[in-house]
Write a structure and sequence with these properties.
Keywords: ATP-binding, Nucleotide-binding, Transport
CATH class of the largest domain: Alpha Beta
Strand content: 25-35%
InterPro entries: AAA+_ATPase, ABC_transporter-like_ATP-bd, ABC_transporter-like_CS, P-loop_NTPase
Helix content: 25-40%
Structural class: alpha/beta
Distance between the termini: 49 Å
CATH topology of the largest domain: Rossmann fold
Family: Belongs to the ABC transporter superfamily.
Domain ABC transporter: 7-234
Shape: globular
CATH superfamily of the largest domain: P-loop containing nucleotide triphosphate hydrolases
Organism: Micromonospora zhanjiangensis
Number of domains: 2
Largest sheet: 6 strands, mixed
CATH architecture of the largest domain: 3-Layer(aba) Sandwich
Radius of gyration: 23 Å
Bound molecules: adenosine-5'-triphosphate
């Protein structure tokens, strides 16, 4: 028998006056899946996360969380935890006291060992007894995650969890989420950072002006939007430019000399034409020193599907 979806939304709509923030959104998140939610500013991500966390009620459509239909009650559905718009804390309380107070508000009694455990999971043990007034954005994000973990959720809903985190902090949070998912917790995370989504998520939903423009496995994006721009650095840029210009299915878009005096060609091609070009370069004795997409398949799909323009870099 198929396992119950952590999230199953059908034709969800939400309006704010004349603004249609969500316009018939379908979303499926399987148990143990880390699902990314991306979209330009104003696409409806926060609104959707708010519905999932019980902070608002949809105007239309249906929503099931962990197998239970969500009707009208403004309450976090059982087994769900997370935050939108950044977690909020009492500034005069310590990290540990804040966690205890939040659990108390939820009517849950937690043991000191549980607090130690979640603080350790997010790497805040050393500042557990510091007031949160002095916490950086990254520390607050991690404490928000610790608060969510305290309820041992089966669904975690997170808005920009890596916001403000330094690379080590982001790696830490990635590790926590990956371990949770491996143990069966589903995670829906909204992010503007495509690299985070690519590193963490197996599936992604792309929203644009309240509508789903793509939802599915990341690997599907790689095949559906295959023509990409690639940076090409070789041992002989002149020969490479000639060979690329002659190759079927390949366009040479730009040539740039970097600060290190390296000449970089940008070639646009689908994978088979690119493979063919690499073989031709090697046969001609031209070494390929670097070949990588200018933007990742996810970013390329995001830009194409949301009608945004690529920014030159
Ligand atoms: N409380 C509200 N009252 C009026 N309009 C709202 C409200 N909340 C959201 N909106 C509007 O709904 C649309 C979707 O907003 P939402 O905040 O969900 O987008 P978002 O994808 O989270 O954007 P961002 O990436 O900027 O956070 C926007 O047009 C926004 O102006």
């Amino acid at each position: 028998m198929a396992k119950t979806h952590a999230i199953r939304a059908r034709r969800l709509t939400k309006r704010f006056g004349a603004v249609v923030a969500l316009d018939g959104v379908d979303l499926d998140v399987a148990p143990g899946q880390i699902h990314g939610l991306v979209g330009p500013n104003g696409a409806g991500k926060t609104t959707l996360l708010g519905l999932l966390l019980g902070l608002a009620v949809a105007d239309g459509g249906s929503l099931e969380i962990l197998g239970t239909p969500v009707e009208r009650a403004l309450a976090t559905p059982d087994g769900t935890a997370g935050f939108v718009d950044g977690p909020a804390f009492y500034p005069s309380l310590t990290a540990r006291q804040n966690l205890a107070a939040l659990a108390d508000l939820d009517g849950r009694r937690v043991r000191a060992a549980q607090l130690d455990h979640v603080l350790d999971q997010v790497g805040l043990t050393d500042v557990a007894d510091d007031r949160t007034r002095g916490f950086s954005l990254g520390m607050r994000q991690r404490l928000g995650l610790a608060a969510a973990l305290l309820s041992e959720p089966r669904l975690l809903v997170l808005d920009e969890p890596a916001n403000g985190l330094d690379p080590a902090g982001a790696k830490h949070v990635h590790g926590v989420l990956t371990r949770l998912a491996a143990a069966g917790t589903s995670v829906l995370l909204s992010s503007h950072r495509m690299d985070d989504v690519e590193a963490l998520c197996s599936e992604v939903t792309i929203l644009a002006t309240g509508r789903v423009v793509f939802s599915g496995p990341l690997r599907k994006l790689a095949t559906e939007h295959r023509e990409l721009d690639y940076r090409l650095v070789t041992s002989d840029p002149d020969a490479a430019r000639r060979l690329a210009a002659d190759a079927a299915g390949v366009r040479v878009t730009t040539t740039v000399i970097t600060r290190y005096d390296t000449e970089v060609l940008t070639v646009t091609a689908r994978t088979p034409a690119l493979d063919d070009l690499v073989v031709r370069l090697v046969h001609a004795g031209v070494a390929v020193r670097e070949l990588a997409p200018v933007v990742s398949p996810l970013e390329a799909a995001f830009l194409a599907l949301t009608g945004q323009r690529e920014v030159a870099r």
